[in-house]
Structures are given as C-alpha cells and as structure tokens.
C-alpha cells in the first residue's frame, strides 16, 4: 500500500468548500429574464405615431434650412475688416451651423425614442469564428432593424433624413472650395506694422505706454499706435492681429539672453503674443518663473531667456520686438520683429 508524497493542505479543502457553497448560493436565485415590454403611446396610438413622425420630419427640415442658411451667410455676410463685420459673420455662421447640426441630432434621438423598436433582445454569445449560418442570422438581424426603424414605410421621413444628411456636407465643402483662390502668400508674415519710432499703445483702448507706467512684474498687452483714420480701414484688424505684443517688466538682472543685445529697455521686454506652434494667443504669465504659457497646447516660453521653448510642441522662441523710449518717455519700437511671427512654415528663412 503506497502513500502519496503530496503534503496535505487544509487551505485547498477550504477553497473547494467555498466554491461549492458559492455555486449552491447562485442556484437559489432564479434568472429574472427580460422585463415585460412596456408599450409607448406611439406603439398603441397611430395618431401619436404620426405626430412623432411629423416632428422628426420638421427637425430634419430645420436642419436642411440651417445648412442653406449657413451657405447664404457665408457668401452674403462676409467679414468687411471691421470688428462688427467679423462678429456678425461669425454669429451668423455659428447660429446656422448649430441649427443644421442640432436638427439632425434631435431628429435622430426623437426618431429612436418614439418610432424605432424599444424591445429588449437577448443575443447568445457564440464563438469568435463566424459561420455561414451566423452570417445569415446577422443579415436577418439587420433586416429586422430596418423594419423596426420604420424607414421603409415612412417615405416622407426617409426623404427628410436623406435630404438633411445630403445637404449638411455642403457647410464644410463650400468654404473649402471657395478658399482655393485665397491669398496664401506666407511671406506677408515676415513684416508687421512695427517700424522704427512707432509708439506702443495699450490694447484695446489705444493709450500710449510710458516706461514709467510699468513696475517690475507687471504685464501689458500692447498694439502699434495708430490714428483714427488707420483704424477705420479694413486692413487694420488683419495687420493688428499680426502685431500684438506682450510687454513685461523684469528685473534687468534676471534677463539671461535676448534675440539681440539691447532689444529690451531697463528690463522691459516685448515679445509677440502669437504662439510659434499654431498661432494661439500666448498670454498666461507666471511671475516667479518668468514663464509664458500658451493655453491651447501648453507650449511654455522663458521670457527671461529670449522666450526660448522650455516645454510643449512649439519649435522656436517667440519673436522679440526691439524697443526703446523717445524724448517724451514713451516706449517705441526700434524696428520690426527680427523674424516672422506666428507658426513655423515651410518658407521661413530662419
């Protein structure tokens, strides 16, 4: 009579007893199954179903009208170079696109909740490999889904849906196609409104900036000084957008490097606000570290060290505006930026 060499382990017996108890406990609970179907009003009242169908058709029609309205707004309400013109154009495009998208979304939701089948079905889990029989079952399920949606017997609803979905891509295609002839001359970004002797003015009120206005740690958003006649021209907004600058006063001892010697004045540095990644406005300044953060993609620049990139996707420093003061103590530009502002592009020399 031989004895087993495997040592007796009481914990194994405890685990087996626990598993058996769990199985016995599970057998005590009956499978609740699928709850009884609760019919909706549209399932029992043909008039309610008809009202729901009309509502969906109206929503799809509103979407189509929104698409047409966006095309009209795109061509008829063009930005005229003024702030009011840009705002009106943006508002009209935003409202009409919202109507177009929301019409499709609300129509789809209302259709699904009120007209499509809301019964619960059970699908048994099968093996991963798909047999010919399973494919036939899938085709039948798809056909059943089409039948449950009611699209085959609701011609008006189907036409409204197809029309809304067919029109919506025009809101994207038309602006893209119409922009083919736009001016893509990137060399325009090599020059801005800044030139020797042009004064710095606060943005947006246009007050001139004196060096004595700024204390160590203070920040100012500035633009080129311009006359009332210049500001009335259509080109002002575009040129101003390229010329916006962030002005910061540092302790002169904290400045490690600049784009060129003497570009700052008594610790006051001026850098382009346009991120060199994709052109977002860089305006979040951290006083203790002298870091400037772009809120779009978190590119971070050290303005005490020539606005070099210390973090993020940007690949080059922010361009620096060389500044000094005139005889009246106002801050003025000594020249334009030494390199193109904004995102890097394929024709940039530096």
UniProtKB/TrEMBL annotation:
Region (Disordered) residue spans: 1-48
* Segments passing through the bilayer: 56-76, 88-109, 159-178
Q: Which UniProt keywords apply?
A: 2Fe-2S, Cell membrane, Disulfide bond, Electron transport, Iron, Iron-sulfur, Membrane, Metal-binding, Oxidoreductase, Respiratory chain, Transmembrane, Transmembrane helix, Transport
Q: Does the keyword Zinc-finger apply?
A: no
Domain (Rieske): give its ranges.
268-332
Cross-referenced CDD domains, in alphabetical order?
Rieske
Membership in a protein family: Belongs to the Rieske iron-sulfur protein family.
> Protein name, please?
Cytochrome bc1 complex Rieske iron-sulfur subunit
Species whose genome carries this gene: Xylanimonas ulmi
Provide the taxonomic classification. Answer: Bacteria, Bacillati, Actinomycetota, Actinomycetes, Micrococcales
